[in-house]
Known about the structure:
CATH architecture: Orthogonal Bundle
Number of domains: 1
Shape: globular
Low-confidence stretches: none
Order of helices and strands: HHH
Helix content: 40-55%
CATH class: Mainly Alpha
Number of helices: 3
Strand content: under 5%
CATH topology: Non-ribosomal Peptide Synthetase Peptidyl Carrier Protein, Chain A
Amino acid sequence: MTDNTFNYMAETVADIKDIDVKDIKKDTLIKELNFDSLDFVELQVAVKKKFDFTMNNNFFNEKTMFIEMCDYIDKRE
């Protein structure tokens, strides 16, 4: 995972969830961010614009950490 990807995703998620970006750590579980379906759509749109691919929501489960999401994005770039 690159720092650029982590920083972009942390800032994007912080904006979507209206939380402080400092509250998002590499080991934060995605489920702890309490994404609803609209939040996830916003995240998919941001990823599509920045990285030019569509993120699959089947990837995410209760044990997915923020760093794993960033790694997933980096592997698709």
